[in-house]
Amino acid sequence: MNKIRWSSIGAVAAVLLLVSGCGSDTPTTGSPVAGTPLIEPVTISVPASTQPPLNPAMPIVVNVDGGTLIKVAVTTADAENKTVNGDFASDHASWTTKDPLAYGTTYTIAVEAANDVMVSAQQTFTVTTVSPAQTAYANVVPAPEVVAGIGIGVGQPMVFQFTAPVANRAEIEKHLKVTTEPAQQGAWYWTDDSNVHYRAEHYWQPGTKIHIEADVFGLDLGNGVFGAENNSADYTVHDSWVAKADGSTELLTVFHNGNQVNSMPMSLGSPGHPSHEGPHVVSARQDSIVMDSCTYGVCQGDPNYYREKVDLDLRISNDGEFVHSAPWSVGDQGSSNVSHGCVNLAPANAQWMFDHFNIGDVVEITNSGGPTLPVWDTYGDWSVPWSQWQAGNSNS
């Protein structure tokens, strides 16, 4: 229960009036004495203290009517007793927290105010914030620290990856922001319930500066999940590197800022394991990995089983497609498709690709005989027609 205490500052409880003049010596009674100050009490209010639990994205506001605020102290009502800072309005008729609040926390608000004749009041309130069943983070992909020194390629979508499914996608999307310099129109598209991607109609212009924000702290993501905190990141797009893998010629042709700089024989996926068609984006690079067919169901005992260390790997989809060194298929490179979906290159050519391509760079595969790369398959974003992408799918 809120507590209030009054005190008088100065001698205002009694007023003495001395009367002199030509009239009667009998004093007039029954009416106020002119000049006597009327002592009106101030009224202090903290709206959040009388309402349901406060969303911590909203501030605690203290108001006063009939006077001015002198002192406001907000602390957590626990052993930590953490102070929350705030600011007075210019007229000291209100005070608002400026430090962020936390979920599931009770705050004590101690207020002192005074009226025009300095009669003061002290009052204490409590405010409790929402306790969500679960919170989720909006992580950025790629992690900024991974690409800080090299930038991203022209094909890299902007990605927020939520740590829990988002049911209220349309509402959350309103709180996602992207700015580009130079300006390039783009749109958000949900590849699944946890991942939302942003891209433009065409690949980013080299040198573009990109800033992204997810202002989701306190937002209801749906099904009892709330945003854990806001997040933002900055990226710089480096030179354009695009490789075109054509299954009809068995050549991988490389373009730097639109100019052809290399061409090399290759081998795509065999008829039984065709490579996906469409633009692929490099999402990771590793000096070597162990490729095991059992990861997609072809295990020991099957004549098509393999487990092999593979060098100079550029991942171009999440289901096992890479550009990599394949010394075992050099005889087929340039003439036939024999891989399990990857782009096979001779060791020297694979080294050249590994030295020049990085996260966000593009490998476009055509005439492979395979299906289009799915939008959800890191990153099939560019396979979606722009008109469909621009329309968005937050309500689907």
From TrEMBL:
* InterPro entries given in the database record: Big_10, LD-transpeptidase, LD_TPept_cat_dom, Transpep_catalytic_dom
Tell me where the signal peptide lies. Answer: 1-24
Q: Which GO terms describe its biological process?
A: cell wall organization; peptidoglycan-protein cross-linking; regulation of cell shape
Pathway note: Cell wall biogenesis; peptidoglycan biosynthesis; Glycan biosynthesis
- Please report a single Pfam family linked to this protein: YkuD
Q: L,D-TPase catalytic domain: from which residue to which, for each copy?
A: 241-366
Name of this protein: L,D-TPase catalytic domain-containing protein
Q: Which organism is it from?
A: Antrihabitans stalactiti
